[in-house]
Amino acid sequence: MRCPFCAHDDSQVKDSRPSEDNTSIRRRRQCESCGARFTTFERVQLREVTVVKKDEKREAFNRAKIEASVAIACRKRGLAQERLDQLVSGIQRQIETMGESEVHAQAIGEMVMEGLRQLDSVAYIRFASVYRDFTEAKDFEQFASTVREVGLD
Hints:
- This protein has helices at residues 63-73, 81-96, 105-119, 121-131, 137-145; strands spanning 11-18, 24-31, 37-43, 50-52, 58-60, 102-104.
- By secondary structure, the chain is an alpha+beta fold.
- Helix 1 (63-73) crosses helix 4.
- It is elongated, with a radius of gyration of 19 Å.
- The relative contact order is 0.12.
């Protein structure tokens, strides 16, 4: 594993353990060159999935894009990071177990919206405003009027 500090190619694993949600392995590493310590996460990837964008361009599935979108939608909502990680992991599993090598970005967006709808109504509306390209305040009003509060734990 390349060191993020000095770009040396070798590092030594000092500690490995499952992550809190048991979907990845957390590894503490130490660079053999500069001695810096850093953490990496290793996840199972069931299959290579290509995302078909709205303009028909194709790109490799990138979990980090979903993580970033969910984080923005949930900013300052007081939701535990573990719940957000579970949401993203569930979406990734769903995509990888569909049996398709290509998935449309629209399908991924709908999965994220459904997950956020069940998690937090404000985050759901925030995500929808970007995903559905709201342009006026009345778009928010119309969409928000269709949202019912979901009983959260």
